[in-house]
Amino acid sequence: MSAFNQTIKETAGLVEAALDKFLPTQDGPLGRVADAMRWGALDGGKRLRPFLAVAAADMFDVSRVRSVRVGCAVEMIHCYSLIHDDLPAMDDSDLRRGRPSVHKKYDDATAILAGDALLTQAFEILAEEETHPDGAVRCAIALELARASGKAGMVGGQMIDIYAEQKDFDLAGVTQLQRLKTGALIRFSAVAGGIVGEGSKDEVGALAAYSEDLGLAFQIVDDILDATSDAEALGKPAGQDAEMDKATFIKLLGMDGAKSKAVELIDSCKAHLDRFGDKSAPLKGAADFVFERKN
Ligand code: GRG
User: What is the mean pLDDT of residues 172-193?
Assistant: First the structure.
């Protein structure tokens, strides 16, 4: 295993343990939604977003107790979005992270409620004093997450994805859609690490620039994997973009053009971190990981 894979695995272990504590099983009528939250959030995924939050915070010597909480908050939002995205009213997907999606394992109502509860618990975690003793810092992180996940961010991107007449989208249109749908949470992750670390405006700005390029590269790779991989390797259905005639980077740039664009973005995202010197190695490693990932 490469040194970076070992590092992201270690962080994922910390996040898994913290999520397990945040999401205990429960007796009585709430047991079902508690179990569904655990099914949707535990034991799966690359944990890329929490890794970005923790690695960015590490550059400012933030304690892992704090940074892992920020990482758990963004992972909970991500997991809620996947649970809702898999519902029959959206992507209608039976498979997620290589196992039945939450509505398949439970039912639609339970999946909706489990997603809602993960969404709200993310903000609960950020608001608690253990995340940062300074209420203004906690508020700044929560504000950033609200913007990244709501109508001006991920939800807005999902809305455009579902309802816009995508066949007419040009590169600017696809880029804007993906910046919102996938990019906003990736951007939040790195930026939140800088905020919890009380970085300067310029330092947080550099993290924003890094994660904006990284988010787009992530999406291009996602398009490539959707077109070239299979459900077994991805742990979710493949070939959906072409089936639904979605506007993707591959459709607009061709496969080679999309790959070149991803390489360009990976190079430029790393360059934004040069000001942090050696401390930025894990975040630069994350960029290579995004490019080389197979699921
Ligand atoms: C339902 C509000 C709402 C939003 C859904 C993010 C999203 C919006 C839907 C997910 C659909 C999708 C497959 C988008 C492509 C990019 C993406 C978010 C992939 C999944 O993220 P990974 O690869 O997944 O980080 P893991 O499982 O590793 O966490």
Answer: 96
